[in-house]
Amino acid sequence: MATITALETRDVRFPTSRHLDGSDAMNPDPDYSAAYVVLRTDETSDDGEPDGLAGYALAFTIGRGNDVQTVAVEALAHLVVGLDLDEVCADLGAFSRRLTDDSQLRWLGPEKGVMHMAIGAVVNAAWDLAARRAGLPLWRYLSDLTPAQLVACVDWRYLSDALTPAEALALLEEAAPGRAARRAELDRHGYPAYTTTPGWLGYSDEKLARLCREAVADGFGILKLKVGLSLDDDVRRLGVARAAVGPDVRIAVDANQRWDVDDAVRWLTALEPFDLAWIEEPTSPDDILAHARIRASVAVPVSTGEHTQNRTMFKQFLQAGAVDLLQIDAARVGGVNENLAILLLARKFGVPVFPHAGGVGLCEMVQHLAMADFVAISGSMEDRAVEYVDHLHEHFVDPVRVERGRYRPPTAPGMGARMWPASVEEHAFPDGAAWRPEPAAARLVARVPA
Ligand SMILES: [Mg+2]
């Protein structure tokens, strides 16, 4: 009998704030970080891994607090270590509920915040493990599950006023006959991507214009700009971007929770002439009624989701008619299982999903959810795209492949979050080489004439 033998964690941080990559109105100097998780087993691996079969995932943070996130993951070890691998892989719904139902840890949420993100990372590592064991990329593994198996992955508690298991089963069965054709379509054409690379607030107008032109030349049909610090600056920057790309490329904007309702309405009314694709996170991610009021007051489509804590919140955004589109995140909610619930809710309400990514490893992971959604749940790539940011992919063993503005479907087994061991060591905080200060002696020598 094979078992899970260890839950290992590492505090891994990338010093991205040195170049203002990732800067926005709320997060001026992020150091993209990962509370990195490895689920070890005593099963040998088909791909010749000396340490045997393992599952890899991460919780994404932006620097300080990544140690807290890492300790939260470690607090789950007693629920995981020693479990029978066959049983875990056969019922990942039960595995996920086992983590969310720990009555003492549940007090720290419930199902929100640091502890829930920790659960998400461990649940995702278990899915990565199951998919690796099956020799399949996760999107393929998920889209091979039967409608009944997918329904059994979801924790249905708190959802029945919006969607019942029977309704979900009917939606999945309706989509089932087209799965093979959609897999073939994915293989041929990939999945649409949109890019945020040009639009960070810390970039100059010249850099913004150059990166916008490069993005269009690279095949992207949607770009996203950060907004929300200064209305005058945003009007100028959107003018620069629109002039650079012309009228046919869609431009979305992201305020990263910066505004109250009246600020949002004033700002978005002023930005309407730029024909925006959507406004993302205009206000508090917890304020469903404020999103509904903003949506009722402006012509720009309203979106949120990267900080939406759980399926119960997503349900209410949909029930309240507070959003035109949704953005799931692979590492915010309680892992693959809860994201399946959210994708099913979005399908029921007919709201398109534009997954949030970027950061570190988020593109690698969330592409699998978008592709499984296309094959087995919504059945549509129409008016959908996965965020893409060209940062930090070189640290992953199976980095995303984006060609001509589209994600190529991953072929390697797993969920994509496995990092190169050397990258983990170099960026381990605080002792990795990336975090060692420049030696004082070297600076001194440079200043002292020979
Ligand atoms: Mg965002």
Describe the structure.
The chain has 450 residues and is an alpha/beta fold. The protein has a domain of 245 residues: Enolase-like C-terminal domain (TIM Barrel). Helix content is 43%, strand content 14%. It contains 19 helices and 12 strands. Strands 4, 5, 6, 7, 8, 9, 10, 11 and 12 form a 9-stranded mixed sheet that branches. Strand 5, helix 12 and strand 6 form a beta-alpha-beta unit. Helix 8 runs antiparallel to helix 9. It binds magnesium ion (MG). The site of magnesium ion has 6 residues, from loops.
Short description, anyone?
By secondary structure, this protein is of the alpha/beta class. The chain has a domain of 245 residues: Enolase-like C-terminal domain (TIM Barrel), CATH 3.20.20.120.
Q: In the CATH hierarchy, what is the class of one domain?
A: Alpha Beta
Fraction of residues in β-strands: 5-15%
Tell me the overall shape. globular
What is the CATH superfamily classification of one domain? Enolase-like C-terminal domain
How many beta-strand segments? 12
Helix content estimate: 40-55%
Oligomeric state as shown: single chain
- Tally of separate helices: 19
Secondary-structure content class: alpha/beta
Give average pLDDT, whole number: 95
The low-confidence runs, each spanning 5 or more residues with pLDDT under 50, are 441-450
Task: Give the distinct bound molecules.
Answer: magnesium ion
